[in-house]
């Protein structure tokens, strides 16, 4: 690989801006949205973009930044490029380099930081692509908007969900949106036409308490273990279809335990000689957008958490399940969606190859757009890159990041010139 000196002055500056943005601590539980806005707004202004800051909370602590490059024909539906401002937390002691230092490893070119892939590469790539197009004298036909939104990682209730329902959003007349995707292990770019639904399932068990030494039936933890075992069997069958290659990771239901709670705390840990009367387990629960949700709910009620085993459950559906017309929230990737072929052509013109479109195994703000019947694709231009979102040592290689800028130049050029 070329030494750092092999980058042009512009490329070095672009990598520098990526690092600067990564150093802003936008991780939950207290994301520095003000810091992100103070970085992004002057940056956008320096490129001649119009900027507005919207608030959907009374305390105005969760800004939504809207940047605009006006098109020569503002009567055409606009193009929206989205990115969330927030990140998930990191456990610094588990990382090779501090997660908010954005350290660039000179030997590999990897920039290590929380958010390097998810998704703080995107706004820098969008803005640098605009710089390239602007410097080449390009003028968009359609208006191009960039939205930089808060709270995606916690469900988007005060972010994209409210934005999508706002008058400000309606006034943008969005025809098509691009949002985050996931890295690709090969040299094919991945593209996502739907997200899995994101639910949370909490199961509580009650049971007879008793001495830790006593063998008896119907203890709370035993009842909960029954539930966990049933769900584990279901999970294994779903996972099996992914392992055998029969289904993609977005085409199965995942139900993964994320916490368990039982027992009585003591100064040295837990009281060990008492069997508790209550126990609880929480699951991250994702479903393909086409899933028969009524069937799954019945299954939870009758098989996973039946009342006769002293189990109760709480199911929280984060965001819509179907679009406004009652259909699964998926964007067509065929001739019925003219944006699709323009996007596909743009990737080819950028010298890229596109993998077969997939359902994203995680969940993004795209669902709030698809709910309105507006087409949206998930796309993050990261090829030959391990998938490290929400993981330790999240990184993006400098060259991969820079190539992404070029890819967006092609995409923006094609989509904003599309007259159809
Ligand atoms: C809770 S909404 C989704 C948040 C995040 N993007 C995820 O997939 O986990
Ligand atoms: Zn994300
Ligand atoms: Zn994420």
TrEMBL record:
<dbReference type="InterPro" id="IPR001261">
    <property type="entry name" value="ArgE/DapE_CS"/>
</dbReference>
<feature type="binding site">
    <location>
        <position position="180"/>
    </location>
    <ligand>
        <name>Zn(2+) 1</name>
    </ligand>
</feature>
<dbReference type="GO" id="GO:0005737">
    <property type="term" value="C:cytoplasm"/>
</dbReference>
<dbReference type="GO" id="GO:0046872">
    <property type="term" value="F:metal ion binding"/>
</dbReference>
<dbReference type="InterPro" id="IPR052083">
    <property type="entry name" value="Aminoacylase-1_M20A"/>
</dbReference>
<dbReference type="InterPro" id="IPR006311">
    <property type="entry name" value="TAT_signal"/>
</dbReference>
<feature type="binding site">
    <location>
        <position position="118"/>
    </location>
    <ligand>
        <name>Zn(2+) 2</name>
    </ligand>
</feature>
<feature type="active site">
    <location>
        <position position="86"/>
    </location>
</feature>
<dbReference type="Pfam" id="PF01546">
    <property type="entry name" value="Peptidase_M20"/>
</dbReference>
<keyword id="KW-0479">Metal-binding</keyword>
<keyword id="KW-0732">Signal</keyword>
<dbReference type="InterPro" id="IPR002933">
    <property type="entry name" value="Peptidase_M20"/>
</dbReference>
<dbReference type="InterPro" id="IPR010159">
    <property type="entry name" value="N-acyl_aa_amidohydrolase"/>
</dbReference>
<dbReference type="GO" id="GO:0006520">
    <property type="term" value="P:amino acid metabolic process"/>
</dbReference>
<feature type="binding site">
    <location>
        <position position="84"/>
    </location>
    <ligand>
        <name>Zn(2+) 1</name>
    </ligand>
</feature>
<keyword id="KW-0862">Zinc</keyword>
<dbReference type="GO" id="GO:0004046">
    <property type="term" value="F:aminoacylase activity"/>
</dbReference>
<protein>
    <recommendedName>
        <fullName>N-acyl-aliphatic-L-amino acid amidohydrolase</fullName>
        <ecNumber>3.5.1.14</ecNumber>
    </recommendedName>
</protein>
<feature type="binding site">
    <location>
        <position position="153"/>
    </location>
    <ligand>
        <name>Zn(2+) 2</name>
    </ligand>
</feature>
<feature type="binding site">
    <location>
        <position position="390"/>
    </location>
    <ligand>
        <name>Zn(2+) 2</name>
    </ligand>
</feature>
<keyword id="KW-0378">Hydrolase</keyword>
<dbReference type="InterPro" id="IPR036264">
    <property type="entry name" value="Bact_exopeptidase_dim_dom"/>
</dbReference>
<feature type="binding site">
    <location>
        <position position="118"/>
    </location>
    <ligand>
        <name>Zn(2+) 1</name>
    </ligand>
</feature>
<feature type="active site" description="Proton acceptor">
    <location>
        <position position="152"/>
    </location>
</feature>
